[in-house]
Automatic annotation (TrEMBL):
InterPro entries named among the record's database cross-references: Glycoamylase-like_cons_dom, SbsA_Ig
Residue ranges of coiled coil: none
Superkingdom per UniProt: Bacteria
PROSITE patterns in UniProt: PROKAR_LIPOPROTEIN
Protein name (database record): Glucoamylase family protein
Domain SbsA Ig-like intervals: 50-137
Species: Niabella yanshanensis
Amino acid sequence: MKYSDTIIFTGLLLSMACSKKGNNGTDQSVAPPLVLKSITIQDQPFGAVAINQPVQPVIQLILSEPVKPGTVAGAITLKDPSGNTVPLQAVASNGGITVKPNSSLSYLTKYSIIVNSSLQSLSGGNLQAAVNNSFVTHLDSSRKFPALTNEQLLDKVQQQTLKYFWDFAHPTSGMIREGSKHAPDIVTSGGTGFGVMALIAGMERGFIDKAQGLERIKTMVSFLKDKAQRFHGAFPHWMNGASGAVIPFSANDNGADLVETSLLMMGLITARQYFTGADASEANLRNDINNLWKAVEWDWFRQNSQNALYWHWSPSSAWTMNLKVQGWNECLITYVLAASSATHTITKDVYDNGWARNGAFKNGNTYYTYPLPLGENMGGPLFLAHYSFMGINPNGLSDAYANYQTQTKNHTLINHEYCKANPKGYYGYSDSVWGLTASNIKDGYTASSPTNDQGFIAPTAAIASMPYTPAESMAALKFFYYVLGDKLFKEYGFVDAFSLDVVKNNGAWFADAHLAIDQGPIVVMIENYRSGLLWNLFMSAPEVKAGMKKLGFSGPDL
Protein backbone atom coordinates (compact mmCIF):
# COMPACT_ATOMS: atom_id res chain seq x y z
CA MET A 1 0.00 0.00 0.00
CA LYS A 2 1.23 3.42 -0.90
CA TYR A 3 1.56 6.21 1.68
CA SER A 4 -1.38 8.16 0.09
CA ASP A 5 -3.60 5.06 0.28
CA THR A 6 -2.81 4.74 3.99
CA ILE A 7 -4.03 8.27 4.64
CA ILE A 8 -7.29 7.61 2.78
CA PHE A 9 -7.87 4.34 4.67
CA THR A 10 -7.23 5.94 8.07
CA GLY A 11 -9.64 8.75 7.29
CA LEU A 12 -12.31 6.19 6.38
CA LEU A 13 -11.86 4.43 9.74
CA LEU A 14 -12.23 7.71 11.64
CA SER A 15 -15.35 8.53 9.68
CA MET A 16 -16.86 5.17 10.48
CA ALA A 17 -16.06 5.57 14.18
CA CYS A 18 -18.19 8.73 14.41
CA SER A 19 -21.27 7.37 12.67
CA LYS A 20 -23.45 4.35 12.31
CA LYS A 21 -25.66 3.02 9.58
CA GLY A 22 -29.40 3.54 9.93
CA ASN A 23 -31.99 1.06 8.71
CA ASN A 24 -32.17 2.92 5.45
CA GLY A 25 -28.44 2.80 4.98
CA THR A 26 -27.84 6.47 5.89
CA ASP A 27 -25.40 7.68 8.55
CA GLN A 28 -26.80 8.93 11.92
CA SER A 29 -24.59 10.96 14.32
CA VAL A 30 -24.44 9.89 18.02
CA ALA A 31 -25.23 13.07 20.03
CA PRO A 32 -23.39 13.57 23.35
CA PRO A 33 -25.56 13.54 26.48
CA LEU A 34 -27.02 16.78 27.77
CA VAL A 35 -25.39 17.72 31.09
CA LEU A 36 -26.92 19.89 33.83
CA LYS A 37 -24.06 22.15 34.88
CA SER A 38 -25.96 23.89 37.73
CA ILE A 39 -29.39 24.53 39.17
CA THR A 40 -30.11 27.59 41.29
CA ILE A 41 -33.08 29.16 43.03
CA GLN A 42 -33.01 32.93 43.43
CA ASP A 43 -29.43 32.79 42.06
CA GLN A 44 -28.27 30.52 44.90
CA PRO A 45 -27.33 26.82 44.68
CA PHE A 46 -29.94 24.43 46.02
CA GLY A 47 -27.84 22.47 48.49
CA ALA A 48 -29.70 19.66 50.28
CA VAL A 49 -32.96 21.60 50.62
CA ALA A 50 -33.30 25.28 49.80
CA ILE A 51 -35.25 26.88 52.67
CA ASN A 52 -36.85 30.27 53.22
CA GLN A 53 -37.63 30.80 49.54
CA PRO A 54 -40.15 33.28 48.08
CA VAL A 55 -43.59 32.10 47.01
CA GLN A 56 -42.78 33.18 43.44
CA PRO A 57 -39.30 31.73 43.05
CA VAL A 58 -37.14 31.80 39.94
CA ILE A 59 -35.29 28.55 39.24
CA GLN A 60 -32.47 28.57 36.71
CA LEU A 61 -31.03 25.51 34.96
CA ILE A 62 -27.68 25.93 33.20
CA LEU A 63 -27.00 23.17 30.66
CA SER A 64 -24.06 22.06 28.57
CA GLU A 65 -25.90 22.82 25.30
CA PRO A 66 -29.03 24.63 24.11
CA VAL A 67 -32.13 22.48 24.52
CA LYS A 68 -34.75 21.38 22.06
CA PRO A 69 -37.77 23.62 22.98
CA GLY A 70 -40.33 20.93 22.29
CA THR A 71 -38.95 18.67 25.03
CA VAL A 72 -39.02 21.24 27.83
CA ALA A 73 -42.70 21.14 28.88
CA GLY A 74 -42.82 17.37 29.33
CA ALA A 75 -39.50 17.13 31.11
CA ILE A 76 -39.90 19.65 33.94
CA THR A 77 -42.52 19.42 36.71
CA LEU A 78 -43.12 21.16 40.02
CA LYS A 79 -44.90 19.17 42.75
CA ASP A 80 -46.46 20.07 46.09
CA PRO A 81 -46.18 17.92 49.25
CA SER A 82 -49.15 15.79 48.17
CA GLY A 83 -47.54 14.99 44.84
CA ASN A 84 -49.87 17.24 42.86
CA THR A 85 -48.40 18.98 39.82
CA VAL A 86 -48.17 22.77 40.14
CA PRO A 87 -48.62 24.74 36.88
CA LEU A 88 -45.42 26.45 35.79
CA GLN A 89 -43.74 28.16 32.89
CA ALA A 90 -40.35 26.97 31.66
CA VAL A 91 -38.62 29.13 29.09
CA ALA A 92 -35.55 27.84 27.25
CA SER A 93 -32.80 30.23 26.25
CA ASN A 94 -29.30 29.76 24.89
CA GLY A 95 -27.67 27.34 27.33
CA GLY A 96 -30.36 27.38 30.02
CA ILE A 97 -33.97 27.16 31.18
CA THR A 98 -35.80 29.58 33.47
CA VAL A 99 -38.61 28.03 35.54
CA LYS A 100 -41.32 29.96 37.41
CA PRO A 101 -44.65 28.86 38.92
CA ASN A 102 -47.69 30.35 37.17
CA SER A 103 -49.00 31.80 40.44
CA SER A 104 -47.83 32.29 44.01
CA LEU A 105 -47.08 29.11 45.93
CA SER A 106 -48.29 28.41 49.46
CA TYR A 107 -46.29 29.75 52.36
CA LEU A 108 -44.16 27.46 54.51
CA THR A 109 -44.52 24.51 52.16
CA LYS A 110 -42.04 22.07 50.68
CA TYR A 111 -41.99 21.72 46.87
CA SER A 112 -39.98 19.53 44.50
CA ILE A 113 -38.62 20.55 41.11
CA ILE A 114 -38.13 17.48 38.91
CA VAL A 115 -36.29 17.35 35.59
CA ASN A 116 -36.42 13.98 33.84
CA SER A 117 -34.16 12.53 31.19
CA SER A 118 -36.58 13.23 28.32
CA LEU A 119 -35.11 16.73 28.13
CA GLN A 120 -33.01 16.91 24.95
CA SER A 121 -30.37 19.11 23.43
CA LEU A 122 -30.76 20.54 19.92
CA SER A 123 -28.40 17.83 18.76
CA GLY A 124 -30.68 15.15 20.21
CA GLY A 125 -28.80 14.12 23.35
CA ASN A 126 -30.92 13.27 26.39
CA LEU A 127 -30.31 14.65 29.86
CA GLN A 128 -27.53 12.58 31.38
CA ALA A 129 -29.15 12.25 34.84
CA ALA A 130 -32.62 13.13 36.16
CA VAL A 131 -32.84 15.87 38.79
CA ASN A 132 -35.04 16.10 41.90
CA ASN A 133 -34.44 19.13 44.13
CA SER A 134 -36.57 20.46 46.99
CA PHE A 135 -37.19 23.90 48.38
CA VAL A 136 -39.30 25.36 51.18
CA THR A 137 -41.18 28.63 50.86
CA HIS A 138 -40.85 31.21 53.59
CA LEU A 139 -43.25 32.01 56.39
CA ASP A 140 -45.97 34.55 55.76
CA SER A 141 -44.63 37.33 57.98
CA SER A 142 -47.51 39.73 57.40
CA ARG A 143 -49.38 40.91 60.49
CA LYS A 144 -52.60 38.96 60.89
CA PHE A 145 -54.29 41.25 63.42
CA PRO A 146 -54.32 45.01 64.05
CA ALA A 147 -51.61 46.40 66.31
CA LEU A 148 -52.37 46.66 70.03
CA THR A 149 -50.48 48.13 72.93
CA ASN A 150 -48.76 45.61 75.17
CA GLU A 151 -51.48 46.00 77.80
CA GLN A 152 -54.23 45.57 75.22
CA LEU A 153 -52.51 42.47 73.88
CA LEU A 154 -52.26 40.93 77.35
CA ASP A 155 -55.95 41.72 77.91
CA LYS A 156 -56.83 40.12 74.59
CA VAL A 157 -54.89 36.92 75.28
CA GLN A 158 -56.17 36.53 78.83
CA GLN A 159 -59.78 37.20 77.88
CA GLN A 160 -59.75 34.87 74.87
CA THR A 161 -58.01 32.06 76.76
CA LEU A 162 -60.45 32.46 79.63
CA LYS A 163 -63.23 31.29 77.31
CA TYR A 164 -61.83 27.78 77.67
CA PHE A 165 -62.64 27.89 81.39
CA TRP A 166 -65.92 29.79 81.11
CA ASP A 167 -67.61 28.85 77.83
CA PHE A 168 -66.15 25.34 77.54
CA ALA A 169 -66.55 24.23 81.16
CA HIS A 170 -68.70 21.16 81.78
CA PRO A 171 -72.36 22.27 81.65
CA THR A 172 -73.44 20.22 84.69
CA SER A 173 -70.64 20.61 87.20
CA GLY A 174 -68.77 23.66 85.92
CA MET A 175 -65.61 21.52 86.19
CA ILE A 176 -62.92 22.03 83.58
CA ARG A 177 -62.70 19.60 80.69
CA GLU A 178 -59.39 17.90 80.05
CA GLY A 179 -59.11 19.03 76.44
CA SER A 180 -61.14 20.32 73.54
CA LYS A 181 -60.67 17.04 71.64
CA HIS A 182 -61.21 14.70 74.59
CA ALA A 183 -64.54 13.05 75.33
CA PRO A 184 -66.80 15.86 76.57
CA ASP A 185 -67.56 14.32 79.97
CA ILE A 186 -63.88 13.98 80.98
CA VAL A 187 -63.03 16.67 83.52
CA THR A 188 -59.72 17.10 85.28
CA SER A 189 -58.96 17.86 88.91
CA GLY A 190 -55.73 19.77 88.32
CA GLY A 191 -57.13 21.63 85.32
CA THR A 192 -60.10 22.66 87.45
CA GLY A 193 -57.73 24.12 90.04
CA PHE A 194 -56.09 26.10 87.26
CA GLY A 195 -59.52 27.09 85.99
CA VAL A 196 -60.59 28.48 89.37
CA MET A 197 -57.47 30.66 89.43
CA ALA A 198 -58.09 31.78 85.84
CA LEU A 199 -61.68 32.72 86.68
CA ILE A 200 -60.48 34.82 89.60
CA ALA A 201 -58.11 36.67 87.25
CA GLY A 202 -61.01 37.17 84.85
CA MET A 203 -63.27 38.55 87.59
CA GLU A 204 -60.59 40.94 88.78
CA ARG A 205 -60.02 42.16 85.20
CA GLY A 206 -63.73 42.61 84.60
CA PHE A 207 -63.85 39.93 81.91
CA ILE A 208 -66.38 38.00 84.03
CA ASP A 209 -69.04 39.42 86.32
CA LYS A 210 -67.94 38.66 89.89
CA ALA A 211 -71.38 37.47 90.98
CA GLN A 212 -71.53 35.07 88.05
CA GLY A 213 -67.99 33.91 88.74
CA LEU A 214 -68.91 33.23 92.35
CA GLU A 215 -71.88 31.11 91.27
CA ARG A 216 -69.71 29.11 88.84
CA ILE A 217 -67.13 28.31 91.51
CA LYS A 218 -69.91 27.41 93.98
CA THR A 219 -71.24 24.96 91.37
CA MET A 220 -67.80 23.35 91.10
CA VAL A 221 -67.37 23.11 94.86
CA SER A 222 -70.86 21.64 95.36
CA PHE A 223 -70.06 18.99 92.77
CA LEU A 224 -66.75 18.16 94.48
CA LYS A 225 -68.49 17.97 97.85
CA ASP A 226 -71.61 16.03 96.89
CA LYS A 227 -70.84 13.95 93.78
CA ALA A 228 -67.15 13.55 93.03
CA GLN A 229 -65.54 10.33 94.19
CA ARG A 230 -62.81 10.75 96.79
CA PHE A 231 -60.31 8.37 98.32
CA HIS A 232 -58.96 9.35 101.73
CA GLY A 233 -60.00 12.86 100.82
CA ALA A 234 -58.08 12.93 97.53
CA PHE A 235 -59.62 13.23 94.09
CA PRO A 236 -58.86 11.25 90.93
CA HIS A 237 -57.03 12.69 87.96
CA TRP A 238 -60.11 12.37 85.73
CA MET A 239 -63.76 12.06 86.57
CA ASN A 240 -67.10 12.23 84.83
CA GLY A 241 -68.27 15.84 84.86
CA ALA A 242 -71.92 14.85 85.22
CA SER A 243 -71.80 11.96 87.70
CA GLY A 244 -68.51 12.47 89.55
CA ALA A 245 -67.46 8.87 88.93
CA VAL A 246 -63.78 8.13 88.34
CA ILE A 247 -62.64 7.88 84.75
CA PRO A 248 -59.38 5.87 84.87
CA PHE A 249 -56.36 7.77 83.63
CA SER A 250 -54.63 4.42 83.13
CA ALA A 251 -55.24 0.82 84.18
CA ASN A 252 -54.15 1.25 87.81
CA ASP A 253 -54.68 5.01 87.99
CA ASN A 254 -58.34 4.67 88.89
CA GLY A 255 -58.43 6.22 92.33
CA ALA A 256 -56.64 8.98 94.21
CA ASP A 257 -54.13 11.25 92.49
CA LEU A 258 -52.42 13.31 95.18
CA VAL A 259 -50.64 15.68 92.79
CA GLU A 260 -53.81 16.51 90.85
CA THR A 261 -55.54 17.00 94.20
CA SER A 262 -52.86 19.46 95.28
CA LEU A 263 -53.30 21.51 92.09
CA LEU A 264 -57.05 21.53 92.72
CA MET A 265 -56.59 22.59 96.35
CA MET A 266 -54.20 25.36 95.33
CA GLY A 267 -57.01 26.83 93.23
CA LEU A 268 -59.66 26.35 95.92
CA ILE A 269 -57.55 27.94 98.66
CA THR A 270 -56.92 30.87 96.31
CA ALA A 271 -60.69 31.21 95.83
CA ARG A 272 -61.27 31.07 99.58
CA GLN A 273 -58.82 33.94 100.03
CA TYR A 274 -60.50 35.93 97.24
CA PHE A 275 -64.13 35.62 98.38
CA THR A 276 -63.91 37.33 101.78
CA GLY A 277 -67.40 38.83 101.86
CA ALA A 278 -69.56 38.51 104.96
CA ASP A 279 -72.69 37.47 103.08
CA ALA A 280 -73.93 33.89 103.37
CA SER A 281 -73.05 32.99 99.79
CA GLU A 282 -69.33 33.72 100.18
CA ALA A 283 -69.23 32.43 103.76
CA ASN A 284 -70.76 29.11 102.72
CA LEU A 285 -68.27 28.80 99.87
CA ARG A 286 -65.36 29.34 102.23
CA ASN A 287 -66.78 26.75 104.64
CA ASP A 288 -67.22 24.16 101.88
CA ILE A 289 -63.67 24.75 100.60
CA ASN A 290 -62.29 24.37 104.11
CA ASN A 291 -64.10 21.07 104.56
CA LEU A 292 -62.71 19.72 101.26
CA TRP A 293 -59.22 20.92 102.14
CA LYS A 294 -59.25 19.49 105.67
CA ALA A 295 -60.49 16.12 104.43
CA VAL A 296 -57.40 15.36 102.34
CA GLU A 297 -55.38 12.75 104.26
CA TRP A 298 -51.95 13.89 103.13
CA ASP A 299 -50.16 11.88 105.80
CA TRP A 300 -51.95 8.66 104.75
CA PHE A 301 -50.26 8.98 101.36
CA ARG A 302 -46.94 8.29 103.05
CA GLN A 303 -47.81 4.61 102.42
CA ASN A 304 -47.38 3.18 105.90
CA SER A 305 -45.50 6.15 107.40
CA GLN A 306 -42.57 6.27 104.97
CA ASN A 307 -40.67 9.54 104.72
CA ALA A 308 -42.14 10.32 101.31
CA LEU A 309 -45.51 10.99 99.74
CA TYR A 310 -46.92 8.65 97.10
CA TRP A 311 -48.70 9.89 94.00
CA HIS A 312 -51.49 7.30 93.49
CA TRP A 313 -53.74 4.95 95.37
CA SER A 314 -56.29 2.66 93.75
CA PRO A 315 -59.36 1.07 95.37
CA SER A 316 -58.72 -2.05 93.28
CA SER A 317 -54.92 -2.08 93.07
CA ALA A 318 -53.91 -0.22 96.24
CA TRP A 319 -50.30 1.04 95.96
CA THR A 320 -49.48 -0.93 92.81
CA MET A 321 -48.27 2.15 90.91
CA ASN A 322 -45.88 2.81 93.80
CA LEU A 323 -44.71 6.18 92.48
CA LYS A 324 -43.02 8.45 94.99
CA VAL A 325 -43.58 12.18 94.67
CA GLN A 326 -39.99 13.35 94.58
CA GLY A 327 -38.22 16.29 93.05
CA TRP A 328 -37.32 18.20 91.09
CA ASN A 329 -40.53 18.43 89.09
CA GLU A 330 -43.93 20.16 89.15
CA CYS A 331 -44.95 18.75 92.54
CA LEU A 332 -43.48 21.17 95.09
CA ILE A 333 -47.05 22.33 95.77
CA THR A 334 -47.93 18.81 96.97
CA TYR A 335 -45.40 18.91 99.80
CA VAL A 336 -46.21 22.53 100.65
CA LEU A 337 -49.91 21.72 101.07
CA ALA A 338 -49.22 18.50 102.94
CA ALA A 339 -47.08 20.47 105.39
CA SER A 340 -49.76 23.18 105.57
CA SER A 341 -52.61 20.85 106.50
CA ALA A 342 -53.96 21.33 110.03
CA THR A 343 -55.60 17.91 110.05
CA HIS A 344 -53.26 15.54 108.16
CA THR A 345 -49.88 17.23 108.08
CA ILE A 346 -46.39 15.90 107.38
CA THR A 347 -43.11 16.67 109.09
CA LYS A 348 -40.06 18.31 107.56
CA ASP A 349 -38.35 14.89 107.40
CA VAL A 350 -40.87 13.80 104.79
CA TYR A 351 -39.99 16.86 102.70
CA ASP A 352 -36.25 16.41 103.08
CA ASN A 353 -36.17 12.66 102.49
CA GLY A 354 -39.03 12.33 100.03
CA TRP A 355 -39.14 15.49 97.95
CA ALA A 356 -35.55 16.70 98.19
CA ARG A 357 -34.09 13.18 98.38
CA ASN A 358 -31.65 14.54 100.95
CA GLY A 359 -30.30 16.95 98.38
CA ALA A 360 -30.03 14.50 95.48
CA PHE A 361 -32.36 16.68 93.39
CA LYS A 362 -29.72 19.41 93.22
CA ASN A 363 -28.14 20.23 89.88
CA GLY A 364 -25.58 23.03 90.28
CA ASN A 365 -24.39 23.02 86.66
CA THR A 366 -24.32 26.02 84.35
CA TYR A 367 -25.98 26.08 80.93
CA TYR A 368 -25.65 28.97 78.49
CA THR A 369 -24.00 30.93 81.36
CA TYR A 370 -27.01 30.36 83.69
CA PRO A 371 -26.50 28.29 86.86
CA LEU A 372 -29.36 25.86 87.56
CA PRO A 373 -29.81 25.03 91.27
CA LEU A 374 -32.16 22.05 90.93
CA GLY A 375 -33.45 19.43 88.55
CA GLU A 376 -32.50 17.58 85.45
CA ASN A 377 -29.98 18.36 82.74
CA MET A 378 -30.80 21.74 81.14
CA GLY A 379 -33.89 22.15 83.29
CA GLY A 380 -36.47 19.88 81.70
CA PRO A 381 -39.87 20.97 80.33
CA LEU A 382 -41.00 24.43 81.36
CA PHE A 383 -44.19 23.35 83.11
CA LEU A 384 -41.91 22.43 86.02
CA ALA A 385 -41.43 26.17 86.52
CA HIS A 386 -45.14 26.93 86.19
CA TYR A 387 -47.57 24.59 87.94
CA SER A 388 -46.53 24.94 91.58
CA PHE A 389 -45.62 28.57 91.06
CA MET A 390 -49.04 29.61 89.88
CA GLY A 391 -49.77 29.98 93.60
CA ILE A 392 -46.34 29.87 95.27
CA ASN A 393 -44.50 33.14 94.65
CA PRO A 394 -40.84 32.28 93.89
CA ASN A 395 -39.61 35.86 94.14
CA GLY A 396 -37.26 36.13 97.09
CA LEU A 397 -38.17 32.61 98.17
CA SER A 398 -35.48 30.22 99.36
CA ASP A 399 -34.91 27.17 101.53
CA ALA A 400 -31.98 24.90 102.35
CA TYR A 401 -31.77 23.73 98.74
CA ALA A 402 -32.29 26.66 96.40
CA ASN A 403 -33.24 30.23 95.68
CA TYR A 404 -36.47 29.73 93.77
CA GLN A 405 -36.35 33.05 91.98
CA THR A 406 -33.03 31.93 90.47
CA GLN A 407 -34.38 28.45 89.79
CA THR A 408 -37.47 29.55 87.85
CA LYS A 409 -35.80 32.38 85.96
CA ASN A 410 -32.69 30.48 84.92
CA HIS A 411 -34.67 27.39 83.96
CA THR A 412 -36.64 29.60 81.59
CA LEU A 413 -33.58 31.43 80.22
CA ILE A 414 -31.85 28.11 79.51
CA ASN A 415 -34.90 26.96 77.55
CA HIS A 416 -34.93 30.24 75.62
CA GLU A 417 -31.20 30.13 74.87
CA TYR A 418 -31.41 26.51 73.76
CA CYS A 419 -34.17 27.31 71.25
CA LYS A 420 -32.28 30.35 70.02
CA ALA A 421 -29.09 28.29 69.53
CA ASN A 422 -31.19 25.54 67.88
CA PRO A 423 -28.54 22.80 68.00
CA LYS A 424 -30.80 20.32 66.15
CA GLY A 425 -31.43 22.76 63.31
CA TYR A 426 -35.22 22.86 63.40
CA TYR A 427 -36.56 25.36 60.91
CA GLY A 428 -38.32 28.29 62.57
CA TYR A 429 -36.68 28.29 66.00
CA SER A 430 -35.48 31.74 67.04
CA ASP A 431 -35.38 34.18 69.93
CA SER A 432 -39.08 34.79 69.21
CA VAL A 433 -40.08 31.19 68.53
CA TRP A 434 -39.17 29.27 71.65
CA GLY A 435 -40.68 27.29 74.51
CA LEU A 436 -40.40 23.55 75.13
CA THR A 437 -42.83 21.90 77.53
CA ALA A 438 -45.34 19.07 77.69
CA SER A 439 -47.90 19.38 74.90
CA ASN A 440 -49.56 17.72 71.98
CA ILE A 441 -47.26 17.04 69.05
CA LYS A 442 -47.98 15.63 65.62
CA ASP A 443 -49.43 12.15 66.16
CA GLY A 444 -48.94 12.17 69.92
CA TYR A 445 -48.01 13.90 73.15
CA THR A 446 -44.63 14.44 74.77
CA ALA A 447 -42.82 16.42 77.46
CA SER A 448 -40.58 18.51 75.21
CA SER A 449 -37.37 19.88 76.67
CA PRO A 450 -33.80 20.61 75.55
CA THR A 451 -33.04 16.91 76.08
CA ASN A 452 -36.26 15.79 74.36
CA ASP A 453 -36.59 18.24 71.50
CA GLN A 454 -38.68 17.00 68.58
CA GLY A 455 -39.22 20.37 66.91
CA PHE A 456 -42.54 21.38 68.52
CA ILE A 457 -43.12 24.68 70.30
CA ALA A 458 -45.94 25.13 72.84
CA PRO A 459 -47.16 28.73 73.24
CA THR A 460 -47.86 28.18 76.94
CA ALA A 461 -44.15 27.59 77.61
CA ALA A 462 -42.97 31.09 76.74
CA ILE A 463 -46.16 32.96 77.62
CA ALA A 464 -46.59 31.43 81.08
CA SER A 465 -42.94 32.31 81.77
CA MET A 466 -43.70 36.02 81.53
CA PRO A 467 -43.10 36.69 85.26
CA TYR A 468 -39.56 35.31 84.84
CA THR A 469 -38.55 36.53 81.37
CA PRO A 470 -40.86 39.43 80.44
CA ALA A 471 -38.90 40.66 77.42
CA GLU A 472 -38.31 37.22 75.90
CA SER A 473 -41.87 36.11 76.62
CA MET A 474 -43.40 39.26 75.14
CA ALA A 475 -41.33 38.82 71.97
CA ALA A 476 -42.68 35.27 71.64
CA LEU A 477 -46.24 36.34 72.41
CA LYS A 478 -46.13 39.03 69.71
CA PHE A 479 -44.77 36.59 67.13
CA PHE A 480 -47.35 33.94 68.03
CA TYR A 481 -50.17 36.48 67.85
CA TYR A 482 -49.25 38.81 64.99
CA VAL A 483 -47.32 36.50 62.63
CA LEU A 484 -48.77 33.06 63.36
CA GLY A 485 -52.11 34.20 64.71
CA ASP A 486 -54.19 32.98 61.77
CA LYS A 487 -52.94 29.46 62.56
CA LEU A 488 -52.51 29.66 66.35
CA PHE A 489 -54.99 32.07 67.92
CA LYS A 490 -58.43 30.50 67.97
CA GLU A 491 -61.71 30.46 69.91
CA TYR A 492 -60.07 29.54 73.24
CA GLY A 493 -56.76 31.35 72.75
CA PHE A 494 -53.61 29.76 71.42
CA VAL A 495 -53.75 26.17 70.24
CA ASP A 496 -51.61 23.74 72.16
CA ALA A 497 -48.47 23.52 70.00
CA PHE A 498 -47.01 23.90 66.53
CA SER A 499 -44.00 23.09 64.37
CA LEU A 500 -42.64 25.28 61.59
CA ASP A 501 -40.15 22.62 60.54
CA VAL A 502 -41.31 21.68 57.08
CA VAL A 503 -38.28 19.51 56.37
CA LYS A 504 -37.67 17.34 59.44
CA ASN A 505 -41.30 17.08 60.52
CA ASN A 506 -42.51 16.64 56.95
CA GLY A 507 -44.60 19.77 56.78
CA ALA A 508 -45.55 22.60 59.10
CA TRP A 509 -48.02 21.49 61.77
CA PHE A 510 -50.46 23.39 63.97
CA ALA A 511 -52.47 21.71 66.70
CA ASP A 512 -56.26 21.89 66.49
CA ALA A 513 -56.80 21.35 70.21
CA HIS A 514 -56.51 23.10 73.58
CA LEU A 515 -55.58 21.46 76.90
CA ALA A 516 -56.67 22.75 80.31
CA ILE A 517 -53.24 22.32 81.87
CA ASP A 518 -51.67 24.46 79.13
CA GLN A 519 -54.37 27.13 78.85
CA GLY A 520 -54.54 27.71 82.61
CA PRO A 521 -50.95 28.84 83.13
CA ILE A 522 -51.31 31.37 80.30
CA VAL A 523 -54.11 33.27 82.08
CA VAL A 524 -52.73 32.86 85.59
CA MET A 525 -49.07 33.60 84.97
CA ILE A 526 -49.83 36.63 82.80
CA GLU A 527 -51.86 37.91 85.75
CA ASN A 528 -49.06 37.18 88.19
CA TYR A 529 -46.75 39.16 85.91
CA ARG A 530 -49.19 42.06 85.70
CA SER A 531 -50.41 42.28 89.28
CA GLY A 532 -49.21 39.33 91.37
CA LEU A 533 -52.90 38.64 92.10
CA LEU A 534 -52.83 34.85 92.40
CA TRP A 535 -49.51 34.84 94.22
CA ASN A 536 -50.80 37.37 96.72
CA LEU A 537 -54.00 35.45 97.36
CA PHE A 538 -52.52 31.99 97.77
CA MET A 539 -49.55 33.16 99.83
CA SER A 540 -51.91 35.08 102.14
CA ALA A 541 -53.41 31.82 103.47
CA PRO A 542 -52.26 31.50 107.09
CA GLU A 543 -51.81 27.75 106.93
CA VAL A 544 -49.70 28.02 103.77
CA LYS A 545 -47.38 30.48 105.49
CA ALA A 546 -47.09 28.16 108.50
CA GLY A 547 -46.51 25.08 106.37
CA MET A 548 -43.79 26.68 104.27
CA LYS A 549 -42.01 27.99 107.35
CA LYS A 550 -42.15 24.48 108.81
CA LEU A 551 -40.35 23.18 105.71
CA GLY A 552 -37.63 25.80 106.10
CA PHE A 553 -38.74 28.36 103.52
CA SER A 554 -38.08 32.05 103.97
CA GLY A 555 -39.12 35.01 101.86
CA PRO A 556 -41.02 38.30 101.81
CA ASP A 557 -44.44 36.59 101.74
CA LEU A 558 -43.70 34.50 104.82
